[in-house]
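Input set for joint prediction.
Command: fold jointly, output tokens.
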Amino acid sequence: MATTAQPGASLMGASVRRKEDPRFITGTGRYTDDLKLAGQTYAAFVRSPHANATINAIDASAALAIPGVHAVLTGEDMKKAGVNPIPPGWLHPGIKIAEYRALAVGRVAHVGNAVAVVIADSPTIARDAADAVVVDYTDHPAVADAVSALKPGAPLVHADAPGNVVFTWQLGDAAATDAAIAGAKTVVKQHLVNQRLIANAMEPRASLASYDPAADELTLYVTSQNPHVHRLIMGAFVLGIPEHKFRVIAPDVGGGFGSKIFIYPEECVVAWASKVVGRPVKWTATRSEAYLTDAHGRDHDTDVEMAFDANGKIVALRVKTVANLGAYLTLFAPAVPTYLYGTLLSGQYNIPAIHVDVTAAYTHTTPVDAYRGAGRPEATYVLERTLDVAARQLGIDPAELRRRNLIAPDAFPFQTAVALQYDSGNYEPALDKALAMVDYKGFRAQQAAARAKGKLLGIGLSSYIEACGLAPSHIVGSLGAQAGLYESGVVRIHPTGKVTVLTGSHSHGQGHETTFAQIVASELGCTIDDVEIVHGDTGRVPFGMGTYGSRSGAVGGAAIFNSLQKVKEKGRKIAAHLLEAAPEDVDFAGGNYFVKGSPSRAKGFGEVALAAYLAHNIPADMEPGLEATTFFNPGNFVFPFGTHIAAVEVDSETGQVTVQRYVAVDDFGNVINPMIVDGQLHGGIAQGTAQALWEGAQYDSNGQLLTGSLMNYAIPKAEFLPNFETDRTVTPSPVNPLGVKGAGEAGTIASTAAVANAVIDALSPFGITHLDMPLTPAKIWSAIQGAKGGN
Amino acid sequence: MYPASFEYHPAASVQDALALLAKYGDEPKLLAGGHSLIPVMKLRFASPAHLIDIGRIPALSAITDGGSAVHIGATARHASVVSSPVVRQKVPLLAEVASHIGDPLIRNMGTIGGSLAHADPAADLPAAMLALGATLVATGPAGTRTIAADDFFTDVFTTALHPGEMLTEIRVPARGAGSGGAYEKNPDPASGYAIVGIAAQVQVSGGTITAARVGMTGLGPKAMRLAAVEGALTGKPATAATVAAAAAHAADGLVFVDDARGSAAYKGNLARVHTRRALARALAAATA
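tokens >
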């Protein structure tokens, strides 16, 4: 139940209604495309229709002849102007970095690769002119899937990446894993395809750049999850603009799911072009452009071997994965199928030996990078799908097989075989709670009765762990990250006691304006309406690493919390001075400082704030003002976990799947706003279910995207989904002062395997042990026919 | 996406619209609800130089009780068809089919005439027109003529309308006693269009099926009647066995291809399964 703010009451754990929603639901949000600057022009891109082609010539004469066209700019123009390629932000030893130019020079490597840009007085003129640009290409054979790309003789994506290998990466003890598998009672083998997905944020990407020649300053409004990262990389590495002359603003942003982390060609072009034409330049993606150019997600091809002893205990896990990274390396791409994937392959389980071997491939497709969950859904799918295959092979109930292998609650901190150290966890209560909620035993009885009547019911578990709250800077630095992953938080108390918070986290759907205000209100005893959360503007927020990897609460929130402690502590000294008491004798509660034991000797927080700014009567050695800054650098990841269970019915005549029930028990540590956490979970479950049942990007062998629109790429609709039943266990994280863990990605991480397992469970009477996602009706029906034929 | 530039002409009357059609020859397109036309213009798959807006013509969207038939103006919105008391009472199958179109936003804007004249091979309404034996009224420079639904859909996105003509009214025979209909749709999860949609209307008298019309959309180049199914129903007892035997003919004579929506075998199966389900419900409605 949503509650409204009560002054003085702790708002931690309260389902406070979102402060930001009135402007979103009344159409007064301020998105990049809503902005209009004086003299604004519009960009339209000329894009390659070919996946692999040489650019012989670009003829812009017809486009330039159209009235209202200011310029047609090409990759050669950009290169001559000294604009650099866009670099990846995470490196591995031996990585082959292909030159990723904002506008292609000489050749294109995927359909949609930008070749030229038109700047014109209106979007329509820009589009007309872009269509009038004639590009002479020589088309070459292309390769779209990674397994084919790694085969000898495959079309080469980049001359300097032989065999299309971006890098190879391994983690774990290969020899110990080999030995354990060789000596195991049972080895379960499974080939798994984790198909490519497209994020589909509701707001398409957009950017608007304006150059001020008087100050030599560039301002860029952009749909970014991390404006400071945009400023750093675009300024320092691509455009060569010093940070103090470059302001990046990410205003209201309508969803990201990871796809708005990265530095994209279009925003680099718009920023550069605004200086070239001397006018503000705006670009807003069409949905068609979003499909072709927003970074895609997942796209793994994996062979798993999971080895068991006679008691059903896992003794080893060997994973070989080919990851498709598309045509170019975007910001996080090298980290996703490696450090965000291989390190999670122990899951909730005590697996003594694990080895993972990843080969990342270039293909003639849209770049692949982080998409909600980023590596962790892939890891969870590998473990949880394989465990279900194993359960059937071993004749052990899937819930029981998981239970036997859980890390014991007294084993924490637990060092996995794949580098991570889990600081805390207690997995069995979440498993038990989820089984009880879904009435697992009752369902199995119902399932047996239904099967006798030819009805196909199935149930699927997914017991997941994820590492989020990215991340300890020294650890990610040692692993190849080209940045630290701390967060900044400024708490500025105004003379009246009202509060402005500047955070480097960025809200694009997460509700930070509410949850962060709840932290402030709870600490200072004010209402959330007394608090303004400022984010998304490098001109106001000192620095920030942005929002992804479920890090805002655990890292950004912690920075704010620590700044609040600094402010409160300074306030205590001022209050003690005013109350003529020793600071250690002054307590703070309900918005008042008071002398211990005599609550009537008190000063309100506002009075203290005013005193801090008047500075007429503060301790002699104290600076005036009341403001604090924290850069919070977490000591470890946080490790949310839980068990999700899906129950489905499959129509054997049509293959249609109906998700009947969905139960989620999660441990997010302390929860600031349960309603918002449930909302995050619901969206994530919808997206993860969609991967299991509906979504999948498909390319043909020429590298043409076949699923390039909402008409043929099936995102989930509310009517496809049941009401989600959620509950939680609470194991506070020890790595941040709030005891919180990330909740933004868990739904996506857990649900795909739960739903896929449920469908395969429903099909088990036919002897079907696995089908690759998406589990479409046509695929299910064909499998049933195949099984019947086989009988 | 931005469409190519075009000239917009609001038509005040049918005569006005016809005059504009005549004036601009091959270049114009009629704009009604716009929910098929505008998307293809935005994608620049179509770039008509002139749009003639018939959505503002008074009375062209009226739904009236014509006694033995319901008369529906060409620009009646899908939502109006769904909620119309006269449609719900006299041709409930049409209300059911229209309720499956797109989503509420589309149903609030899209029009019955627009959908039929567009003749998308996966649209819902053509199947209903065939099952209900509707008559489509076309108005052109030479006056008004009627076209049976059976003759209206000629190919992919192609109808029997002549250049310079416009669809002005749809006449749907009212359901009599012992008549029942049902629509069984298997929607594509992305677009919501029918992978297959089977609309069936059956007449039962004294326990015998005396007439049956079955319209199929989605699996062919155009909506079509399933003649073999209808033939296996007429004169037979109104039983589940009859339905099962008739539905087995649902894919007779149809040629399917393997594509992203499934194998040819799967599509044939869908045709049979949804035909059986539609007929079972239609029979139940007829004998209720």
